[in-house]
């Protein structure tokens, strides 16, 4: 029987909530994703994954239609197994000792499966975290270790649970890691942005829809609701532009928002997590942009219990 061939940026295996969330996240950035699964669709066909072969620059998967045995070979940049998808979908991680990576290392990922404690909510969190990182890699502005940060951030999340989890990873600019813990601070770097509307009918997800977003907020400790405008923001904008990273600046004067974020300058990632915050724009915007896109990461701090 002759095999058909198909090309796509990302092959998503699994048609449950996690797989469809990942498809939607990739679509936000115009990434071509193909979704396949035994109870779902692949171009309106039910199918199963019969074999997967990762290479340095691609992944090839053999899909079989259980109804008539028709075979389609899909070539993708990455393959992501979701919603309990099983063998032969084996991730090929990079070696922890820094040795030479195996062929295809980092080309196969899992979302919401094979992690202790992972449930539906955690799986969706996996998809949101991985989605923007795959899109950044495909669009050419991701640093060399941005995709590696997926495991660094999401493995602890499965243990800690989705509520209140804080990423302490190499792509979070956390200058407050050594500060005494404040259980009432909802906007520490590495935390999801506080669940408060930024303005009428404007949420965090609206401002990060296409990329990173800098929030300029009224000084939370000032009696005036003025948005600060010190020098430094144009340099930050230029640093993002030079790296090709999508970026926008948004001003909000609501004092309630300012108090929830604690500091007047807050940089949000595409997944709605706080990447950095400060009382003034960053002193070295190029270094900050490189860090949060995984180009020059700082060593990950040792996790601590608080």
Characterization of the model:
The chain has 306 residues and is an alpha/beta fold. The chain has 2 domains: 4-160, FAD/NAD(P)-binding domain (3-Layer(bba) Sandwich), CATH 3.50.50; 167-299, 3-Layer(aba) Sandwich (Glutaredoxin), CATH 3.40.30. Helix content is 25%, strand content 21%. The protein contains 7 helices and 10 strands. Strands 1, 2, 3, 4, 5 and 6 form a 6-stranded mixed β-sheet that branches. Helix 1 (17-28) links the parallel strand 1 (4-13) and strand 2 (33-36). The longest helix has 20 residues, at 120-139. The termini are far apart. 41% of the residues are buried.
Tell me briefly what this model is.
Helix content is 25%, strand content 21%. The protein is of the alpha/beta class and 306 residues long. It folds into 2 domains: 4-160, FAD/NAD(P)-binding domain (3-Layer(bba) Sandwich); 167-299, Glutaredoxin.
């Amino acid at each position: 029987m002759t095999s058909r061939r198909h090309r796509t940026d990302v092959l998503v295996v699994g048609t449950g909530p996690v797989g469809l969330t990942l498809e939607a996240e990739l679509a936000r950035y115009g990434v071509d994703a193909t979704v396949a699964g035994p109870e779902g669709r692949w171009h309106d066909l039910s199918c199963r994954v019969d074999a997967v072969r990762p290479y340095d620059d691609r992944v090839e998967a053999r899909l079989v239609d259980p109804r008539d045995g028709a075979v389609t070979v899909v070539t993708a940049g990455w393959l992501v197994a979701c919603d309990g998808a099983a063998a032969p979908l084996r991730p090929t991680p990079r070696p922890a000792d820094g040795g030479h990576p195996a062929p295809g290392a980092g080309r196969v990922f899992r979302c919401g499966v094979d992690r202790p404690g992972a449930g539906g909510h955690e799986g969706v969190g996996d998809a949101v975290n991985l989605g923007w990182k795959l899109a950044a890699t495909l669009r050419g502005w991701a640093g060399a270790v941005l995709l590696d940060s997926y495991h660094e951030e999401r493995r602890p999340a499965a243990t800690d649970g989705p509520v209140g989890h804080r990423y302490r990873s190499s792509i979070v600019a956390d200058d407050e890691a050594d500060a005494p813990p404040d259980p009432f601070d909802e906007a520490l770097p590495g935390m999801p942005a506080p669940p408060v509307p930024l303005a009428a009918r404007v949420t965090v997800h609206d401002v990060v829809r296409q990329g990173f977003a800098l929030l300029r907020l009224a000084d939370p400790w000032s009696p005036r609701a003025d948005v600060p405008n010190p020098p430094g923001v144009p340099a930050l904008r230029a640093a993002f532009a030079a790296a090709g990273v999508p970026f926008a600046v948004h001003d909000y004067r609501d004092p309630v928002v300012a108090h929830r974020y604690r500091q007047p300058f807050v940089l949000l990632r595409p997944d709605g997590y706080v990447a950095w915050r400060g009382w003034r724009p960053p002193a070295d915007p190029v270094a900050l942009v490189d860090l949060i896109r995984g180009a020059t990461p700082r060593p990950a701090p040792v996790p601590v219990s608080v």
